[in-house]
Amino acid sequence: MKTPRMVLAALVACAALTACGSQDGDDRTGTPSPSEGSPVTSTPSSGPAQPGDPTAVPPTAPPSTALPPTALPPTKRPPAGPSVPPGPGATTITGTVQAGVEPNCLLVDGYQLIGGPRDVLTVGARVTVTGQPKPDMMTTCQQGTPFVVESARRS
């Protein structure tokens, strides 16, 4: 009794897969559609193209060797620090940045710094950081309370 049910289930699965394989009803053995691409059947001629020749390929310009326009000169960055007042619930901590036990993990006073300008937050720098502690946030640094940095400046 179990064998006929297995055979029936296999036949139904094969029929369903076959039906899904050709949903629009054609078997794709005819001519390819424009979206499928077709093989090139003509070869380009080496002579000049005739003005009324529909198979003529328009001449192409050689690749440009001109340099792209230069970028604007670098501008001086404003000093890192809060440009707007910190949001509600923000905390400010000041201390020396220490390296964590995992790569790219930075700590200040028991807080793991998440985000912030890495040019300001370097190991050994004394900084003032404003942001929000997120004790429920999961990280790979395995130490410190996660602290999402909103702004940072050297102090």
List the helices and strands and how they pair.
Elements: H1 2-21, E1 91-96, E2 98-99, E3 106-108, E4 111-114, E5 126-133, E6 145-154
Parallel strand pairs: 4-6
Antiparallel strand pairs: 1-5, 2-3, 3-4, 5-6
Structure description:
The chain has one helix at 2-21; strands spanning 91-96, 98-99, 106-108, 111-114, 126-133, 145-154. With 155 residues, it is α+β, with helices and mostly antiparallel strands. A six-stranded mixed sheet has the order 1-5-6-4-3-2, with no helix packed on it.
Concise account of the structure shown:
The protein has one helix spanning 2-21; strands at 91-96, 98-99, 106-108, 111-114, 126-133, 145-154. The protein is of the alpha+beta class. A six-stranded mixed β-sheet has the order 1-5-6-4-3-2, with no helix packed on it.
Percent range of helical residues: 10-25%
Strand content: 15-25%
- Which stretches are low in confidence, meaning pLDDT under 50 for 5 or more residues running? none
Q: Overall mean pLDDT score?
A: 74
Order of helices and strands: HEEEEEE
Strand line-up of the largest beta sheet? 1-5-6-4-3-2
Q: Tell me the total number of β-strands.
A: 6
| Rg result | 33 Å
Major pleated sheet: 6 strands, mixed
Distance between the termini: 81 Å
Q: What sort of overall outline do the alpha carbons produce when their principal axes are compared?
A: elongated
Structural class by helix and strand composition: alpha+beta
Number of helices: 1
